[in-house]
Request: fold
Amino acid sequence: MAGRRQLICASGELTDGGDGVRFEFERFGRREPAFVVRFEGRVHAYVNRCAHVPSELDWLPGRFFDDDGRLLICATHGAVYDPASGACRGGPCRGGLERLGVLEVDGAVWLVD
Reply:
């Protein structure tokens, strides 16, 4: 169903390089884990699944960034990803994170398809 929107969070819940917001979305009749973060002023959403081994990235709920707030890091195996593109930047990863469509408008962050 093209054009659907799902509210993820209020814009103010995301700080640049700070904690992300976890959410779920439906795909093929199943609920999938996902997250949204803010990096360099823009919001980015990804399926919460490492490209190395299919495990969730965050070591605590919403903790996706490294200590410098510059890279997303998998807590399980240490793979690191570019927060703006999801591309692998180091460690054990094959490919990158699966990007999701996201829109920030009127103080809210929306998942869009």
Residues 5-112 form a domain with the Rieske Iron-sulfur Protein fold (CATH 2.102.10.10). The chain has a mean pLDDT of 93. The radius of gyration is 13 Å. The longest strand covers residues 30-39.
